[in-house]
Design brief:
- The chain is mainly β and about 260 residues long.
- The chain folds into 2 domains: about 140 residues, no CATH class; about 100 residues, Sandwich (Immunoglobulin-like).
- The strands form 4 sheets. A 5-stranded mixed β-sheet has the order 1-5-2-8-9. Strands 10, 13, 14, 17 and 18 form a 5-stranded mixed β-sheet that branches. Strands 4-3-6-7 form a 4-stranded antiparallel β-sheet, with no helix packed on it.
- A hairpin with an 8-residue loop joins strand 6 and strand 7.
- The longest helix is centred in the N-terminal third of the chain and has 4 residues.
- It is globular.
- It starts with a strand and ends with a strand.
- About 10% of the residues have low confidence.
Length: about 260
């Protein structure tokens, strides 16, 4: 089953919950998911915490117990809504990320337009370097073409490049026990996504390299892929940072799509 957050923004059958300013329209948790499914990633370097909006309707928020809107939002490196998909009405949609803090509250720092279709899944990414003067950061949308049928013989894995100063990169998964490599699609440029590739169940060491190069650019060890599951590996961070503990260092993020 695809991971769907039980928030159905913009759907007429939903009802507002309480009077909390963080309240969003929700459908019954027993109802089937409808519309398009959208996941929100905050990978904008140095950008403040945000709430995500779709056509001026709040799509993600942090719960508040005070009756006032929470000033805590989705921080850098995190995926909103607990890494789940949010159900949204299909059609032409403008996605915005708005500052959640008290200072500059609700100021949009990114705006990305996309047409989303019912029954399809998408990922919205904040990316690039935050401009503290203009209060802007980049963003992009990719479709998540998750197959309807489950394949219990292997996992499906793809690669997304969200690192703004990275060259086009190719992802390789190596089984450290057998030294067998699985190449996860082609060389992927910034703001692009590769195709899902079948990978046998197991634990893998992941490496990205520029096309035709043997030099490792980003690595991550001991990543487990399970048969029947669907994963997105995303490169984020500043490629000029060499510190192994720096927040903005290059990282391979592992997100479960299903």
């Amino acid at each position: 089953m695809k991971l769907i957050r039980p928030f159905a923004m913009l759907l007429g059958a939903a009802a507002l919950v309480g009077c909390d300013k963080n309240a969003v329209q929700i459908s019954s948790i027993t109802a089937p998911a409808s519309g398009a499914s959208v996941k929100f990633f905050h990978f904008g370097l140095n950008a403040p915490q945000v709430n995500f909006y779709a056509n001026n309707a709040k799509a993600t928020a942090i719960s508040s117990t005070t009756g006032a809107e929470s000033t805590v939002g989705t921080a850098y490196g995190a995926v909103a809504a607990g890494n789940l998909y949010t159900a949204l009405a299909p059609g032409q949609t403008t996605f915005q990320a708005r500052i959640s803090a008290t200072v500059d509250n609700n100021v949009p720092i990114a705006s990305v337009a996309s047409t989303i279709e019912s029954g399809k899944s998408y990922s919205v990414y904040l990316s690039g370097f935050y401009n503290t003067t203009a209060k802007t950061v980049e963003g992009f949308v990719v479709e998540d073409p998750i197959p309807a049928a489950y394949d219990y013989t292997q996992a499906l894995v793809r690669f997304v490049n969200a690192s703004p100063n990275a060259s086009a990169m190719q992802l390789t998964a190596r089984n450290p026990t057998t030294s067998t490599d699985v190449v996860i699609g082609g060389s992927i440029a910034y703001k692009a996504a590769g195709a899902f590739v079948g990978v046998p169940s197991g634990s893998y060491d992941l490496t990205t390299r520029a096309a035709g190069s043997t030099t490792a650019l980003i690595t991550r060890t001991a990543v487990s892929f399970l048969a029947g599951r669907v994963y997105t590996i995303t490169a984020r961070g500043d490629m000029t940072v060499t510190g192994t503990t720096a927040v903005n260092r290059p990282i391979l993020d592992n997100s479960l799509n299903r």
